[in-house]
Amino acid sequence: MGKDVIIACDFDSAEKTFAFLDRFTGRKPFVKIGMELYYAEGPAIVRELKRRGHKIFLDLKLHDIPNTVKKAMAVLSRLDVDICNLHAAGTKRMMEAAIEGLTRPDGTRPLLIAVTQLTSTDQEALEKDLWIEKPIDEVVMHYARNAREAGLDGVVCSPLEAGKVHAACGADFLTVTPGVRFADGDVGDQKRVMTPAEAKKVGSDYIVVGRPITAAEDPVAAYERCLREFTEGE
Ligand code: C5P
Question: Which of 4, 6, 27, 140 sees the fewest Cβ atoms within 10 Å?
Fold first, then answer.
């Protein structure tokens, strides 16, 4: 899969999701289904969006004992999503179990990426709440290397970390990056942001974009601008 823009469909119902996606006549954007939509609508929303021809990143961030994650991943694999994810904090053994669960009898499987540290976790929370006394960027790189060693395909990270992740884990290790805003757009609650063009420059493989597209007056035009800025010259 090449560079692409993934739209974060952060809606609380199938109805709102379809109303939004129906505006994209003739286009089938890559979409991210997160906890909100999945918990509201269940696997039916995944099946329906697949049926409509969308690629799907199912962002459920699994984190449990290895056996439980393995079995849950086997179920997600049967849903035929394109990308799913977990927390690298669940350990290498959990990540290896996830790959096992995800792998179908014919050897194929969805891509699996890891969340290293959530971007909402800062150095203070890392030390005070999690009792991890290391610089956060070193922790992120350590977790990314663990994910690589466990056989995962990449990580979710800030575009500001994409270059370092590629340097530590290889150019073919995917960086999927939220926190993208247009140069002339609202930053909202995201703290450290990059434009699609900047994200491209630092080597992001996929950008995950929510409100700059979903809350735009013309979401299709915003999506196309995003795609153009991110993939121009590809
Ligand atoms: O609306 P916005 O573009 O900020 O949406 C970004 C999407 O990426 C949201 O679904 C958000 O939950 C997700 N995300 C993020 N930062 C992370 C991980 C996921 O913004 N570190």
Answer: 27
